[in-house]
Sequence to fold (478 residues):
Amino acid sequence: MSSLNQKTNWAQFIPLATVFFFWGFVAASNDILIPVFKKAFNLTQGESQLVSVAFYVAYTVGSIIYMIISYLTKGDLINRIGYKNSLALGLTISALGTLLFYPAANMHSFPLMLSALFIVALGFSLQQTVANPLAIALGPIKTGSQRLTMAGGINNLGTTIGPLIVSFAIFGSATSGNTDMSIESVKIPYLILGAAFLIVAVLLKMSSLPDKPVAVVEDEGQENNSRSSALKYPQLILGMIGIFVYVGVEVSTASNLPAYMEKNLGFMTKDVAPFISLYWASLMIGRWTGAVEAFTDNMNTQKILRFVAPYLAFGIFLGVNKFMNHDLTPFYIYGLIILVLIFADMASKGNPARMLLIFSCCGILALLIGMSTDGMTSVYAFTSVGLFCSTLWPCIFTLAISGLGKHTSQGSSFLIMMIMGGGIISWLQGYIADLSNIHISYVVGVACFLYLAFYAWKVTGILKNQGIDFDKKISGGH
Fold:
């Protein structure tokens, strides 16, 4: 039976969303570990960045391991053991990684700390391979990208509160000025996190999540799914490049913003933090906006939620920064920029290809404004890139795995592998900044968005040739 007219299965989606929260919680908390490790192990700035390298490279390594096992066993690993079991296995691997923090802290070993983070992310790699297509499958295809957007919003809730909780657990009252901390302070918070991984693994194992969702295990006799490998589908090949440049522009825009504000605008380092917080909050704002269609089919309710959801997320950002005693005055004007996001989302009409095209063009415009202006105008422009990156992951992912059928999990693994773009594109922008200046280096992001706009245009024709038309699926669902 087609998933076109089925309802979103919230009883299954909600427990699945917990793993998205974990990814954001841990990834953003790495920003706390970097300065802690730098001081505790007497590292250079370059050496401290190995925390990020170990974490993100693990995604690629995990995908490669998955493909090797599937090849050697002559069958897709996830299809064999099931989606639910694969999620539980991924969480267990991540839990094992957190256990390594205990001996690593006792031995004062930086390599063992990196190994712990690597194993945590290795488990995340398997979880992402399973959870992303599963989120799309738990309801009608017309709202698949919106469900993935919603899951991304939960991920960003993790990125918002993760650093605060980990910072408090590690530093305690050090926020008041005491900076004398021991590397052993990381043991307890990560052991608690490991216990949480195991609890969620058990709960997911006992949940009603499907082991082989119908939407991603289609009739192998269908012509569209008769190809021997996921790599035989052009939408996936082009989508892999899309994920690479998307993660690249998302990470590099934020990672180069502090240096721009300090060097070009004279900001103190401590005064940059709220703007970086706003950038990541912008992804939450955009994802909450893009997820409203997954809640209801009522058009009037959707119109209301499109305005309520983003400002609710913006309110969370303001609340967190108020709690941290930051001056909120510079941020109120950002509420007007959020209107651009809302109208862009409405113009997309729920079509992931159209949304990818519109948001990519908005991203290009934001970067060009940032590059051609100075002062706070440029800061707001660069920060707004977070708004227009917010829904690109689910759009690209949905388009790239559409029509893959029995090869869906394999295709998902290939897409997860391309997360490494976050490190490579960031390095490339930094290299260009060294050759010229940080202001000009944002041309790298423009190039990334240009490719994404091309992919949005190209994949529409590719999918239509395979009998997949998202406009028809959307209209058919109302």
